Amino acid sequence: MTQRKSFGSDNHAGAHPDVLRAVMAANAGDAVAYGADERTERVTAELREAFRADSAFLVANGSGANVLGLSVLLRRHEAVICAESAHIDTDECGSAERLLGTKLLTVPARDGKLTPESIAERIPGHDDHFAQPGVVAVTQATEFGTCYTLAELRKVAEFCRLNGLRVYLDGARLANAAASLDCTLAELAECADVLSFGGTKNGAIGAEALIVMRPGLSDAVPYLRKQQTQLMSKMRFLAAQFEALLRDDLWRHNAARANAMARRLGAGAAAVPGVEVVHPVQANAVFARLHPRHIAALQREWFFHVWDERESVVRWMTAFDTTGADVDAFVCDIRATAAR
Ligand SMILES: Cc1ncc(COP(=O)(O)O)c(C=O)c1O
Questions:
Q1: Which atom of ligand 1 is nearest to the CA of 61?
Q2: Pocket lining: 200 vs ligand 1, CB cutoff 6 Å
Q3: What is the dihedral of CA 117, 188, 170, 42, to 10 degrees?
Q4: Cα 125 from Cα 147, distance rounded (Å)
Q5: Is the CB of 61 within 6 Å of ligand 1?
Q6: Whose CA is nearest to atom 5 of ligand 1?
Q7: H or E element in which residue 82 lies
Q8: Is 107 helix (H, G, I), strand (E, B) or coil?
Q9: Ligand 1: residue whose CA is nearest its atom 9
Q10: Closest CA to 176 of 44, 64, 322
């Protein structure tokens, strides 16, 4: 437990008090298990409406949502095109490959974003020696804290439609993207066939939603979710977390606050000689290059990750509960350290 605010991850933050209150409220009495309770029905209906989706399913974590989402979209022989930086490739212990038996076709992606051109590079001929891509996976907001604009996302979606590819969107930080772009969840969702909506990084204890946009895709999801061990028996507690996040758009306030704190940190750090912010700060992450000696000195006082040791790039993340004072104290230390 750190005393100072961690800039290591939005996962380091605790849960929002409203989420904890909602979980406490859901604790009263008994409720039917496995999602057949009325709270889960109400919350999934709210999610369906917010996304203008065909169906919504609650799961416990983002990796589970990704595997489930891909499993809905993939045929047995198909591969997935994704950015080199995609969480499904870099940070999920190969679960898509292991559990789904698929192949990930990675693409170098500046600022973590795919384009029709970069996707086209990985589409082979219809030759049975080549893995045939069936799905394109995008992340919004990206792993580099950037956001596809709606126009960029629509271009990718249109390219995929024309080429018979389905779109999976990893929305572990979809809230941050919606707040950054000042758009609705439905506007982001219409560019995907299936997507996840992350609660955990947005103030939940641990809850994500899988959103299915097209009717033909929904039928198998309950069975796939159970097979993949993501059907929680005490589902009411997952539902309660989303109930709190959806009430009065708490999710958007939380994301906007985290984004604003990242902008403040990015601007503060960029003004320090010797510090270079290497990606646009469009969500709740700042990637910065600074001298390895300064990184080591800062890490004695603050928690954050070195993203790329060779390039001397670190990742600083903010969360829904990061304050201006947290950021200012950190920037003050960055400045003092860099001046030494
Ligand atoms: C972009 C992205 N997708 C998915 C996940 C997976 O979430 P979880 O750790 O809950 O499995 C993360 C977690 O950091 C993430 O950053």
A1: 10
A2: yes
A3: -160
A4: 31
A5: yes
A6: 62
A7: strand 78-83
A8: strand
A9: 62
A10: 322
Q: How far is the CA of 307 from the centre of ligand 1 (A)?
A: 16
Residues in the chain: 340
Q: Is the CB of 146 under 6 A from ligand 1?
A: no
Total-model pTM: 0.97
Q: Whose C-alpha lies nearest to ligand 1, atom 13? A: 62
Peptide bond into 141 cis (omega under 30): yes
* Structural element, H or E, at residue 98: helix 95-100
Place of tokens 């309660």: 240
Nearest residue to 202 (alpha-carbon basis) of 3, 29, 62: 62
Residue in 268, 252, 258, 274 with CA at minimum distance from that of residue 321: 258
Q: Is 87 in the pocket of ligand 1 (CB under 6 A)?
A: yes
CA of residue 143 to ligand 1 center, whole Å: 9
H helices, E strands: number in the chain: 15, 11
At 39, phi and psi to the nearest 5?
Answer: -65, -45
Pairing between strand 132-139 and 166-170? parallel
Query: Residue 142 CA: which ligand 1 atom is closest?
Result: 1
Using CA atoms, how far residue 63 sits from 148, 183, 301, in Å, is 21, 25, 31
Pick from 58, 87, 205 the residue to mutate for probing ligand 1's pocket: most ligand atoms within 8 Å of its CB: 87
Task: For the chain, 340 residues long, give each residue's pLDDT as a single digit of tens.
Answer: 556 899 999 999 999 999 999 999 999 999 999 999 999 999 999 999 999 999 999 999 999 999 999 999 999 999 999 999 999 999 999 999 999 999 999 999 989 999 999 999 999 888 899 999 999 999 999 999 999 999 999 999 999 999 999 999 999 999 999 999 999 999 999 999 999 999 999 999 999 999 999 999 999 999 999 999 999 999 999 999 999 999 999 999 999 999 999 999 999 999 999 999 999 999 999 999 999 999 999 999 999 999 999 999 999 999 999 999 999 999 999 999 999 8
- Is residue 338 within 8 A of residue 294, CB to CB? The reply is yes
